[in-house]
Amino acid sequence: MAAAFHEDTSRLVTWASNRKTSDLALQHADVVSFNSYPGWYGGGPESVVASWQSDGAWVAAHYPTKPFIISETGAGGISGNHSANRSRWSEEYQALIDTLDA
């Protein structure tokens, strides 16, 4: 990370952390970036908004001067797999999670 700062001080330094709140290097980032898949890996659609709110609150409390971005999120879906009750792997479930992530 020091090399990145040294090479070009005009660019922000970040990475897509999948360790989230346990990432010990976040103090060195200019921007806190999380990869997470609430509603897909653990929990259902009802967990998505609360998960991102919790992560955002944690970042605000621990790194109040740093921006927070969601660097990767979503759910899997099989093209052409449809389900009236939005079951996992259906395009409808994927769309629901993607909408909640937005």
Automatic annotation (TrEMBL):
User: What family classification does the UniProt entry report for this protein?
Assistant: Belongs to the glycosyl hydrolase 2 family.
Molecular function terms, GO-annotated: beta-glucuronidase activity; carbohydrate binding
Q: What is this protein called?
A: Asl1-like glycosyl hydrolase catalytic domain-containing protein
The record's InterPro entries line, in alphabetical order, gives: GH
Q: Name the domain of life.
A: Eukaryota
Q: Which Gene3D superfamilies match?
A: Glycosidases (3.20.20.80)
GO BP terms: namely: glucuronoside catabolic process
